[in-house]
Amino acid sequence: MLVLRPVDCDGFEFRGEKNGKRSPAIAGARGSSVFSFLLIIHSLLAVTLLGALTHQTISVWWPVAKRTGSFISSVRSVPSMTYTNAVIVLYLITAVFGAWIYTEYRLSIRVTLQDYRMHVPEGAFELKEHVAAIGLGLLPAYWYYWRQPADAAHARTRAIVTALLAAIVWYSFLTGHVLNNIRGFGS
Predict the structure, then answer these.
(1) Which residues, at least 6 apart from 163, have a Cβ–Cβ distance to it below 8 Å?
(2) 67 close to 73: Cβ distance less than 8 angstroms
(3) Nearest-CA neighbor of 56 among 141, 165, 171, 147?
(4) By three-state DSSP, how is residue 14 classified?
(5) 61 near 76, Cβ under 8 Å?
(6) Angle at CA 80, nearest 5°, toward 63 and 41?
(7) Minimal CA–CA distance to 141: which of 161, 155, 159, 160?
(8) Structure-derived torsion over alpha carbons of residues 9, 10, 12, 16, reported in degrees to the nearest 10
(9) φ, ψ for residue 91 (rounded to 5)?
(10) Are 94 and 136 in contact (CB under 8 A)?
(11) Which helix (H) or strand (E) holds 2?
(12) Are 56 and 78 in contact (CB under 8 A)?
């Protein structure tokens, strides 16, 4: 049976128990690897979301009249309407994975940042939490302005909402990446 237990503010460890005795073979190694795996999945989802929103934002703000053979023209000429549902689903799934690994951040990584008096990265992550919540609140407006058929009268609003959501995702991604580099999972 696997039991999740707090251990000395270093995060959680999974300890295997057999007949009431703890198994030292998996103590420590399993807890950090679970959170590392979740962080990798969260990061892959975030990169996918980042790519979709970046393509959509570029195609809205810098559209191409005729597609040529160049890479830049290809990036600009993506069908931006097709990204809407994928962006919403990816944002929600990425947020769920982020909330899942948030306990590890709160109980071990944030404590380390406070011990080393690294207030700027800690504050940047606190701001990331609020910005990501604003992005969650922005998703219904994003869906409303991108629904089929797209109303030409709302083209500017659609572009602004998309750019704002892209800025939120870029800030969240970069902040999480830098914070993970300062003290990553499993260290």
Answers:
(1) 57, 60, 61
(2) yes
(3) 165
(4) strand
(5) no
(6) 125
(7) 161
(8) -110
(9) -60, -45
(10) no
(11) strand 2-6
(12) yes
Asked whether the predicted pLDDT for residue 18 surpasses 50, the reply is: no
pLDDT in tens, 161-174: 999 999 999 999 99
Q: What is the pLDDT of residue 111?
A: 84
Structure tokens at 148: 């089929």
- Geometric angle at alpha carbon 175, from 47 and 73, rounded to 5°: 40
Starting at the earlier edge strand, list the strands of the sheet with 21-23: 2-6, 12-18, 21-23
- Sorted by sequence, the CB contacts under 8 Å of residue 180 that are 6+ apart come out as 39
Distance in angstroms (rounded) separating the CA atoms of residues 29 and 16: 11
Contact 30, 13 (CB under 8 A): yes
Question: Within 10 A of 109 (CB to CB), how many other CB atoms are there?
Answer: 23
- Establish how many alpha carbons lie within 13 A of residue 170's alpha carbon, considering only the half-sphere containing its beta carbon: 12
Is residue 124 within 8 Å of 179, Cβ to Cβ?
yes
Each residue's pLDDT tens digit, 85-99: 999 999 999 999 999
Whole-structure pTM value: 0.75
SS3 73: helix
Tokens of 43: 């990061």
